[in-house]
Fold this protein.
Amino acid sequence: MKLRLIRRDAASRLAMFGAPVLALILTCMTSLVLFALLGVPAGKALHSLLLKPFLSWYSFTEVLLKMAPLLLIAQGLAIGFRANVFNIGAEGQFVIGALCASAFPVYFPEGNFPLMLPAMIIAGGVGGTIYAGIAAGLRIRFGASEILVTLMLTFIAIQVLNYFLLGPWKDPRGFNFPQTVMFPENALLPLLFENVRPNISLIFALLASLFAYLMMEHHFRGYQLRTSGLSPKAALYAGFNAPKMILLSLALSGLAAGIAGASEVAGPLGQLQRSVATGYGYAAIIVAYVGGLRPLGIIASSFLISVLYIGGDSATVSAGLPVAAVEVFQGMLLAFYLLTFTFIRFRVQIDRSVSA
Amino acid sequence: MSALEFLLAGTLAAALPLLLAALGEMVVEKTGLLNLGLEGMMALGAAIAFICVYHSGSHSFGFLAASLAGATLAMLFAFLVIFLKANEVASGLAVGVLGLGLSALFGKNYESLTISGLSEFGLPALSKIPVIGPALFTQDIVVWLAITGTMVLWYILNKTKLGLIIAAVGENVEAARAIGYPVGGIRCAAVAFGGGMCGLAGAYASTVYTPLWADGMIAGRGWIALALVVFGTWQTGRVAFGAVLFGVLSLGELTAQAIGVAIPSQVLSSLPYFVTILMLVAISRHRRHSS
Amino acid sequence: MSDQPILNLTGVSKRYGTVQANKAIDLSVKPGSIHAVLGENGAGKSTLMKLIYGVEHPDEGIIYWNGEPVHLSRPSDAQALGIGMVFQHFSLFETLNVVQNVSLMVPGKTVDLARKINELGERFGLTVDPNAMVHTLSVGERQRVEIIRCLLLNPKLLILDEPTSVLPPQSVKLLFETLRKLQVDGTAILFISHKLEEIRELCDEATVLRGGEVTGLVDPREHDALALAQMMIGREMPHLGVSTSVVPGETQLRISNLSHPRATRFGTTLENINLDLRAGQIIGIAGISGNGQQELAALISGEIRAHQPDMIVIKKQDVGCLGPMQRRELGFAFVPEERLGRGAVPEMSLADNSLLTAHQKGMLWRGIIKRKVEKTFTRRCIEQFDVRTPGPDAEAGAMSGGNLQKFILGREIMLSPDVMLVSQPTWGVDVGAATAIRRRLLEMRSQGAAILVISEELEELFEICDVLHVLHEGRLSKALPVAETTAEKVGTFMLGAKV
């Protein structure tokens, strides 16, 4: 007896929605076992991880705060992933975006610069776009793998960040901490609600989702990108410009990551500091995949991963869960998602061969 | 010890984790797959090895456990990609994230503990050569084993039927299946080998090169190893050469001191990444992966 | 010769999902005989061979080898029994040399193997250089390597899957001589084909398959081709019908002095190609694939750009450096030989696949996709070209080769092109669909289109073309008017005769 995968005539709709849910359930069950083995009270940990974020207004708004950058970056990445352009270095573009945006408040610490906020957001977006554009250029001109180049650029971006924080941009009154001055009031994004931290960058992210949805599902440009990803030869046959697809994919994902970086320093951080690089760029890859690379799915998955972050924070306190557990949870979620995703496209058939 | 001597002595040890991981991945890629999870498999190997050595005091046990851990994690990739036909890039990343997370989880209680490294010994005769002798030819046993292993791997890939089979599977999966080779099994074995090598690479990094465990200690070396496979154009000798070159670079600050230049430390720390990009540009223009 | 069959299948069935590929097949091969399995594309021949060679496993039925029931779970089991297989699309490795390829299947030292390759080559007329890299070999030579590799395992039964489809007529004769020598040596041969005349010439017995079932077991020498064809397709051979040829009009496609270096070492360099295609004309390019067909097609379609704009001229306009979209706007259309992954995206619906090349047919409004227009176009294509599918939402990847080919051809014809390039129009397509496709091409010619057909099937080209060229090792022969030439003559060009 042998199991084999049979291709479905059309992707199963039920499986398309069911796969992420099933993946989440499997991840929870596996985590229960893992946590139990580590001596963490498993039920309590899961309760903190998945339910606590919903139990108070404050923690719920913290989820929304996390969701903004994840959603924004993931929408950009997903566009590229569907075109088979793998920008793995959104973290670097995020850092460069944050750096570019910070230049304004650092050089005008009194806030005496007109249109401070728009300038910061634009600078962040442009910075991220150009940084990702380097990888696009090298891929188009020399065929250098964008996977490796964007990653290497991330490591370099972190060093650039260190250079500025330890050198020219260090706050002279910051007790030698590697951070800039606190930004002036007009360099901070308006808040969505009173007394809690989510800001209008969540609106940017939702607008980006709408844009991604319209482009990928209803516009010819999105169709061209999808075709390039699914069958590069068909795209060539149709005459879609391959370098343009690569450039567009990387530029859009860099733009999104750059704006997210700018929003981070102009939002919850209020200054540029080392902890700006906390792995949003990497987590967004998982968000993009678990959302099925679909703009609407990514809204759901970015919310889920944000819940896990906030829940993880509370679980470290209440259940003694190690911080790394959140990362493990994310990794498992992606692995289980890939596993369940197979059943969207294939169904399992039991092959009973007759033995003589 | 002068800076130059230090550099000579340190290069091989610094190159070793890169070498092991890159050679493992090279075999994976020769069968036509691409596993991006090197960083995670190395980190897991590093954590497991450190824990085992800490409790047992035996480095052999640590290396064995690390290679098993790396191979186990790699089998997850193999299962997703070979059996379930899942996206290679996403599966590799999943394995990478999972490995990094698990290493941090398991290693949490072992941060800032110490273990003893391995003693070094010199090759007879060669280590007597003045200046470079004691520096270059006095290394720990793993270095000598790895050099031997590299040569064995070269022989297997280039001179044996097994090497021929690996090349055949990588070039044309359908044909290999048609003439009766269990392609899935061969690829699984290659992926497991690659994972095992990453485990060993991590073990060396955490129990010999710097005998301590810290979260994030692999610091991108998995990704550099991945780039080294491209740099080495899937040939054992060139990959090994690339690893040594990067060993020198990763001792950037020491190198600079040896040459006597003063540059901001961030520039030196970025050097390996810069050079990786440069070599991707120089190499991939001419060569694309055959499969 | 004993009467005990060497291979015997009783009631063998195999089902893939909803498709019954083989249904209760009985097949019996006597030692030392040349047994044909005859059937058209999609009749279940390949599945049957996979079952015999252990690549797939039957759902029902038993395979007997020398009277003993056997269970073949993988090809190596079949090899161990003495079953050898020569694949239609060869299972050779291009980056390895001949001996290395052989040694992947046959144990032994390199030196010994090289000696044996030479010995066998002389004995059976299969000469090939053991140290040559496979990618430098011609298709005929590659087939020899495949056969030698099987023979070195001393097979009692040799299976050849459509072996003549890749050979020029002269090489087919050589192959048949080799097979007869093997027969005299006592090797049984299972010869898979859909070419009736060949089977009548070579085989002692024929099992005829249709729709996955056995429809006849005959001595092919006692039946004429028409009778065999009826058994094979279950009705009269469909006729193309008479088509009135048109007086050729203006030149629509001119290729002049087109040379292009190969992109990889597995490719072919094109040298000084000249061709003149007029309105109301079908020109065929004969030759075995791998002689520059793919390169030439890609250069004409714009997937590869030529070095000089005037090397390719469509309707008086130099297009050598234009992309596929611009050439399409000039009235050019192209049906490539790879349907899945090039002519169509397997994961997309038929409607979305219409968009691939027909988007300028009013399917876009400022870049926004007009789903209604897209669907209407697709539905019309499905109806007019007899595409059997549930509808415009069905995925291209789930369709049979013949149906998908009808869809792609239909889509391209609906662009109402003045110049059309069709590459391997009937590869893997059943007789009915193939006839329908050829009829469509003739209709287009009557309406004044200029059509270039690249095909391996000589008969097909003779059936529909006005003029033939032969492409061999990147060079194009002079124009051969179909009325004044023969298959043999074309064959000499396929073997490399100079202009």
